[in-house]
Amino acid sequence: MFGKYGLVLKNASYLTLFEVMRMAMPFIALPYLFRVVGEERYGMVVFAQAIVALFTLFINFGLDISAVRDVAIHRNDRERLNQIFSSVIFIKSALALLVAVALTLATRFVPALSAISTLIFYAFIACISDIFLPVWYYQGRENMKVLTIVRFFSIAFYTAALFLFIHREEDYPLIALLQSLGLVLSAGVSCAYVFIHDRIRFRLPPASMLVKTFRDSIPFFASRASLAINTYMAKIMSGVYLSGSEVAAFDVAQKVLNGGMVPIQMLNQALYPNLSRSRDKGMVRSLLRVVTLFVLGAVAILFFFAEPIVRILSHGELTEAAALLRLLCVQLTCSGFSVFLGTSVLVAFGHQRPFNVSVICSTIALLVCYLVMIYFHLNSIYLYAGALILAEVVVLAYRVFAARRYRLV
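The structure corresponding to this sequence follows.
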């Protein structure tokens, strides 16, 4: 099996290595940041980045999914790749201008955002990376080695810069700025490599190509929007109704939880372009057993070692994050299977509609929970976590039903 799917496993290894580095290096700096700037100010930075992340959702739209498929299908047609690359960059640039205007207006007229306008501006610089970092191109070409190397050095730059430039409590805005600059550096080098090594050329694409590229991304926007809401709304709710400390606690718990998802997500990213071409049901069924082992192993480790992990990462400042992490292990159990059944199974085999419906239903459930909490003033990070768990259960249940209906598992 491994010989047959060697390319998939190779790319999964590169993606996993990168994600481990991406998460491990900031974890190295996290105790230092809590000690220097404190959990309240760190939470303010996370709050600003969550706000920007929701806005930048409209920059990526569904292009990061649809473009992977297009590149994978036309990987040997250089002229077609030029058109795809140019269309994606052009559309993202146009959307970024609209997002910049909307975010400027929001920081001007919304008091909660006006108070952190500098942090929001620093975080928004990372949007340059959203435009020019061609992760979707490398995924479609099934060549993640270069991207892994480039992003390793950008993360190393960001981590080292935190220790070099942040020495006082008042330096906390630099956390957002340095992270954005690291991402921009990664985007610039990665894009240059595409131009020089792959000889991709940017040309003003015809209107018909722009329309087609944008239209193909629309079905994936709902899933991206739902993912962003599921990821960032709890932090935004905590920032608006609670405090920076609660935002920081949620951020630490989610960072650790995301660490448990890394192998599954990277396997999923490596599988998607391969399965989009081969549609090998046997491979899906074999890998489902592997996913099960990864999920159960990750949940067991995080549940039993939650307290020491949180104590080390937060410099002993956020003890409530341990209980939150244990609660969110239920979400991890559901997410591990739903991620695999979503992109690598349903979308890869051409069933986009149930994929999108599942995330729309989960987002509706999540938003209803949040509205009920707001109406009845039920504001607690544990209730926010409970809402996330309910949303993930809805996603998993729908995707299991759809996958069995189409006899994919």
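The chain is about 85% helix and 0% strand.
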